[in-house]
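Morning!

This is the sequence you dropped in the shared folder:
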Amino acid sequence: METAELRRLIVRHRHLAPMLSVLLAATDARVTITDLDGEIILDRKAGFTTADTQLERHPILVDGAPVGWVEGPRPAGAIAAVLSYACARETDKRALAREALDRYRELNLIYDLADEIGATLETDAVAQVAVTEAGRLPTGGRGFLRLVRDTANELEARPTGDDPEPVVQPGAGILGAILAGDPEIVNDIPGDPRATPAEGAYASLVAAPLRVRGERIGIIGTISLEPVEYRASDLRLLGAIASLAAPTLDQAAVHEGRRTASPAVPD
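The structure's back. Tokens below.
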């Protein structure tokens, strides 16, 4: 929680500020509330202290980490506990609001993506839509998609002509493990012992296998050269993209195969 938010809760919040005033009015102790840097948020000077008064310093905690301090005689501990509870509640409310917004974005993405993907049966066109959406994750990064080829040990970049990096090899590296396993977030690629030298040039990634009827036909992901913190919400969005793109890519491949195998119709 930032200092400005802590100050707003203590000084102006419609429930917490009056409650804090009541608590302070019930004691004649001088109490000072500061942020982590020692900047005073509230200094209640009405009380008095003597040379024998034992001063205490208690943290205001959110998720176990201090966000501010309450200093004063014995009532300071109770005030810090009340502020910790109020700050935790406010943090929880904001987290729920962010989650609701993320879910709303996910639903919009699913509807829009379903419309775009369903409008074509061209592999590159479907891949382009999926890659574009993968590159729009809120955390940032560049989208990529690789499809399994019958020959060679590498997957081909789609859409055709897309940046061939990162290279994905079945059974090798982080991406090879994700292709064979489950969707995953890796926010420290160089620190991951699975990383290949090529993958080590990147900082962070989130990726998911493309699966159709239990068969793995490729992988889709978002990768960043700069360190970023991909979150569970990014993985959910990418999973939605993968679940919509995979069957359509499979259908497109079948459609293109049939078209290629069909004899040309003479003029």
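Headline: The longest strand covers residues 215-224.

More detail when I'm at my desk.
O.
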